[in-house]
Sequence to fold (68 residues):
Amino acid sequence: MVSGIDARLIEAEAKLNEPDIPGMVGILDGLREAPPAIGAYHPAPMPALDVPAEQDDAVSLFFREKSF
Fold:
């Protein structure tokens, strides 16, 4: 079963591959700002991310965020 979180991460990865780094960070920031509930768990909002200047840094950021 795929959740809305997975769908947003797929969209963020597509932005990363375009490459549209600010677009990717915008999607990740949206998830951080208003994290969806996961069952009974309701994560607290997190601060916005800095936009990486380099593609390699953006890839690292994406996979770090995806691991959360």
Helices lie at 4-17, 21-33, 55-67. Residues 35 and 43 are 6 Å apart (CA to CA). The chain is about 60% helix and 0% strand.
